[in-house]
Every structure is written in structure tokens, then in C-alpha cells.
Amino acid sequence: MRTLVALVTVLGGIGIAAPAGAEDIQAQTARLGWLDKITARIGEVRVDVGTATRLGVLSITVRSCVRRVPPDDPESAAYLDITELAEGEPARDVFHGWMFASSPALSAMDHSVYDVWVLRCEIPSDAETGGTEVPDDGSATPAPSDSGPAPLD
Asked: Region labeled Disordered — which residues (predicted)?
């Protein structure tokens, strides 16, 4: 028993422990899925962090995109600012907060026409290219960037 206690004390003292989880990776691009509830059209759009894109009357700005990789459960989460910019109406905030790819209902946007959700955060080493679909009518287009992302506290 004394030997076991001494061994545990020594091992604990030199820092042998269970491996820590993976670090979060700050991604540079968010891939978002969208649904137009009126026309039943769906698609995907890539948005660089710190920039905005237009989806119909919505302006979607990605403030941050974070990806966690194994050994932890893989997860992508993005902080989005979504504003409705209907013509002749004042801008209306629709959503501000984190959306999680693995649990889209956890923090969902409530809008009468559009659903938007996070598919994944992409980093340069992702070999996948293409596959981004935007509406034929150009309703998902890059918007002019503002002064950059606001600090996330």
C-alpha cells in the first residue's frame, strides 16, 4: 500500500495526467446553410469572418467562427449578427449570438421568410472546395464590409 501511495504521489508530481482536450481553432470562413420558406429553396453560402453577405432582405455578418477537432467532439460554432434591411423600413435586428452546427435548434434565428444555420467553420487546410450554392437570382451576395468585427466579450 505504501508503494502505491508513493507511486501515485510521484506520478502526480511530474504531471502525468489524462491528456487535455483539443484547442479551439479560429476559422477564417463560416459555411452557412439557408432556407427560403416561401419558395422552398435551400442553399449554402461561405462568409469570411469579419464580412457580411446579403440573403434577400437579410444582412449576415460573421463575427467569429470556432472549430473544435478530435479528441473532443467535433463542433463548429459561429457568432452571427443578422439584420433585416427591408426597403423603406428601418433596419431591424433579427439575431445576435452563437449558433452551433451540431445543435441548430439550441440557438435558432426566428424570421418569417428565412432560416439560417451554421454548417461548419472552415480553415485553409480544408481540402474541400466548391459546393457553395447561391440562389440564381443573386439574393445571397457579398455585402460591403463594415469597419471590421466588433470585439466579442
From this structure: 126-153
For cell 481540402, name the residue: 127
Distance CA 85, CA 108 (A): 19
What is the Cα–Cα distance from 66 to 121, expressed in whole angstroms? Answer: 6
Q: Which of 35, 42, 48, 43 is closest to 121 using CA atoms?
A: 48
Task: Determine the Cα–Cα distance for residues 118 and 101; give it in Å rounded to an integer.
Answer: 5
Residues 6+ apart with CB under 8 A from 68: 21, 22, 24, 25, 74, 75, 76
Rounded Cα gap, residues 43 and 59, in angstroms: 16
d(CA 31, CA 123): 11
Neighbours of 123 (CB within 10 A): 14
Closest CA to 70 of 118, 21, 2, 13: 21
